[in-house]
Description:
alpha/beta, Rossmann fold, four-stranded antiparallel β-sheet
Amino acid sequence: MFAKTFKGGVHPRDRKELSADSPTVRLEAKGDLVFLMNQHIGAPAKPLVNVGDRVLLGQKIAEAGGFVSASVCSSVSGTVKALNPHVNQSGDEALAITVGNDNEYEAVPGFGEPRDYEKMSADEIIQAVADAGITGMGGAGFPTAVKLKVKDGVKIDYVICNAAECEPYITCDYRLMLERPEDAALGMKILLKIFPGAKGIFGVEDNKPLGIASLEKVCEGSERMSVQPLKKKYPQGGERMIIYAITGRKVNSKMLPADAGCVVVNFSTLIAIADAVAKNIPLVRRVVTVTGDAVRSPSNFDVPIGICAQELADAAGGFDTDPEKIVFGGPMMGAAVYTLDIPITKSSSCILCLKNDETKNTEPTECIRCGKCLYACPEHLMPIELKNASDRLDYKKFEDLGGLECIGCGCCTYICPAKRRLSQSITMTKRYVLAEKKKGAGK
């Protein structure tokens, strides 16, 4: 089938060969588990336990703190040791529940017991997803149950599984395509029960031929499920990009995907939905890639949510040399961190450890007016003009130029021969403008 794509984007070296052939290894925590209350977009979760309480595997230890929020379930059994702030991958601190693992893994009643999703209503399925604390596992962390509650009168034509995994280095979704394709198909069937008039499409970049073949096999004979190859290009996995590539429909910052008749879920998220709805297993584990040229044995690990990132690095053999840069996520949109004493969250897809920080000693020069950033921008903006407006603190001009449509993908910075920090300036200005608008709306 013809590989589809979007206009714009860049082609960074993907370096997926480091970990792509490493089968997923199940890893249990040696130390305490730390469950952050803000591991999703929206209001932080509210703790339901106190210090000294014994908790069980799969127990809800924090409830959603608002409409856009998500609950948190314990990935082990043990005793609550603390409720206090803990550093997260953004470098800030957030309230967290620390559980001492008793290594017994005593589960809540019903944990892992199969149930027939065919007999469940759409509302019951969405409630099961909410109870399981499922969020987007590709990085954004949007609460999945909220995404599935579309407005009355909105018709969903496509349920798109985002299996592009376009960020360099990351291979956790790819391994799941090879190892759990049946569960991905089950997750898609569950979502198609919520949206009976929709088609289910798996969008996979064409640099994953084995992944495409694996998914095509489980979609054989289905009238509603299919696989759509996508061209290898970053950011092919961006929500707006994958919707356009597969359907030809456009989404902007004033729209939700549902407004274009689409629901988009990450590949790992789809499997989490299958686990929650059909197997009664809440989101307590995920697959994480540990990779980079500083890692002795780049690997993919199935780990409990809340495990310390240092334990994953140790399990991958440690480092050949101390990494100069560590990133949670991919090199394009991930967050650089200063410590590995950070808990794995629902959206932690990768720990990237690099011997050298190639950008550290790179000084930007004056713009040479080459126009490469314009051609690379998947939103068809003018990044250099947006940066100029940002530098002048000209927020009106920034908005007039469409700055709020920026998705922060970093293509402009990546492609710039003058090494100008385009994306960084634009993203910071966008955050400021949105914050000011929020303040004004609250007056």
